[in-house]
């Protein structure tokens, strides 16, 4: 019994943001209204979860970043939320810059914040992915040496 109650509480704690966002969007709320409602529901400290949930609901990255910035989130937290949700740093930066222009924000300040975020990311050879070491494969077994060919009958000897 207690296990079922605990599972229900855990499930309820992990699912409501996406369910509410999807319901809000399907009921006709704008992306910004849905973002603000989800942010208010979690106390304003869940930009990453809201971003991931909105992406899962099919909302465009540009719309989410604009809603987040319009709701008062700072550039660094929007960039962080986007990249942790699987958006590339380049796409997140472009979306933030586009949203800042749409919202009439100080574009130079936003550009500086995006550049600062990008330069503070750990460098990897392939961009923002975690570097992976190639697996070490064992050497193939050495085949046994076949016995030398020793013709013993005239049929075994080539005429040429």
UniProtKB/TrEMBL annotation:
Q: Which domain of life is it from?
A: Bacteria
Name-wise, this protein is Uncharacterized protein
Task: List the keywords (alphabetical).
Answer: Signal
Cite the record's Pro residues compositional bias ranges. Answer: 137-151
- Is Signal there in the keyword field? yes
Keyword hit for Signal? yes
First and last residue of the signal peptide = 1-19
């Amino acid at each position: 019994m207690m296990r079922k109650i605990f599972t229900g509480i855990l499930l309820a704690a992990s699912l409501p943001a996406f369910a509410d966002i999807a319901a809000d969007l399907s009921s006709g709320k704008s992306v910004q209204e849905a973002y603000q409602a989800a942010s208010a529901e979690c106390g304003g400290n869940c930009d990453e979860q809201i971003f991931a949930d909105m992406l899962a609901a099919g909302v465009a990255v540009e719309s989410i970043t604009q809603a987040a910035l319009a709701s008062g989130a700072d550039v660094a937290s929007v960039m962080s939320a986007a990249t942790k949700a699987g958006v590339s740093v380049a796409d997140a930066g472009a979306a933030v810059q586009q949203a800042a222009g749409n919202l009439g924000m100080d574009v130079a300040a936003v550009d500086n914040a995006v550049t600062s975020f990008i330069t503070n990311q750990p460098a990897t050879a392939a961009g923002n992915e975690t570097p992976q070491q190639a697996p070490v494969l064992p050497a193939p077994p050495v085949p046994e040496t076949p016995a030398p060919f020793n013709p013993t009958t005239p049929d075994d000897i080539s005429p040429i």
